[in-house]
Hints:
With about 200 residues, this protein is of the alpha+beta class.
Amino acid sequence: TRSFAEMTTQLSDARELVHRSVVQVEGARANLQTILDNLTAGVIVFDRNGAIDTVNPGATRILKLPLSAYKGRRLDEVAGLGGFAQLVWQRFELHAESPEAGERDHWQDSFDLQFAATPDGRERDSITLLVRGAAMPQGARLMVFDDITELVSAQRVEAWSEVARRLAHEIKNPLTPIQLSAERLQQKLGGKLAGADQGMLERS
């Protein structure tokens, strides 16, 4: 009877420990889901077979596609993401086989994503994504990405502004001595020419 009572107590303690562990896991999962839901970046977790396991609202917002409907399916099955999925998967494989310097834990790369036209014929804009990928336990893979289209566009505008400024400077440099020479000619020849020659000098 004493042994049975001890065994019952041990089972009760074990059951209580399991219950506490489940509560802790559920709490951690809820916290993680809250964080994912409020991230502006897109997050997609792939299982060991490459199928979509977890998607946050940020991923749906950035890609403007109903990714939650594709859980359990591969990314290349999502309409318009076939090429992008292939490039991302190649990057995962390259990182697994031969990570570059500084890429021991994760890789980072940018991708230009071209969207196909919508069924009503409207063309969708292309976007530039900054993507980070990392391996997770049990063969899962994590992809975090953000839309950097506006940043890249601003950098291009800045670069073109600098080109225009330098070009204007290079054009202006020879124009100044030409203008000064023309003014000197006008001062020296202004009183010596008449008629059509005088008009040509002034126009010049």
